[in-house]
Automatic annotation (TrEMBL):
<protein>
    <submittedName>
        <fullName>Crp/Fnr family transcriptional regulator</fullName>
    </submittedName>
</protein>
<dbReference type="InterPro" id="IPR018490">
    <property type="entry name" value="cNMP-bd_dom_sf"/>
</dbReference>
<dbReference type="Pfam" id="PF00027">
    <property type="entry name" value="cNMP_binding"/>
</dbReference>
<feature type="domain" description="Cyclic nucleotide-binding">
    <location>
        <begin position="32"/>
        <end position="119"/>
    </location>
</feature>
<dbReference type="InterPro" id="IPR014710">
    <property type="entry name" value="RmlC-like_jellyroll"/>
</dbReference>
<dbReference type="InterPro" id="IPR000595">
    <property type="entry name" value="cNMP-bd_dom"/>
</dbReference>
Amino acid sequence: MGRTRSSTSDVFQRLAGSALPEWSVVEGAACERRLRPGEALFLAGERKPFVFVVNEGIVKMVYETPNGDSWVKGFAESGVCFASVAALEEDGLTSFSSYAVVESCIHQIDYRVLLRLAGQHIAWQRAIANALKFYGQRKERREMELLTLSPEDRYVRFMHDNPELVAALRQSDIASYIRVTPVALSRIKSRLGKQGDQ
């Protein structure tokens, strides 16, 4: 999973549903980041008015509490773009941290450049609108799962929906994503294993 590669232009063209004008402007504004496993892309509380495109690898997004706990809010794999929406506001700061799960290559693009292009071209308007729509859909689904499903059901759904992603993740990250401790995850897996043996 971590070795699949996707180009930044493919990601945005897929969002737009068409070719994008003035692509050279985005290429000029893009900065490539190469991260080792565990290395931070950004930390909470930083000024990062960027859209990040994962060209290769996996990034996890993490909320960290004042007492040192951390919970994975989501993952972005190759072919996915993401941002801290709070940081896209004027003088906004990131509300979460992000770290490479495996060796990763990420393009960061100044959101203001994308907004300028959207003000001039309908295709760029579509790309940004669709990116925000997909973000909203993922956020709504995540909230629904946390509020209505049991930890065991969240685990089963995550494993079913993300088989390739799961293969690259540590069990502690999966536990954090479904909002249980690693010990509780081990118990869930044990119960499911026993059910499968029956």
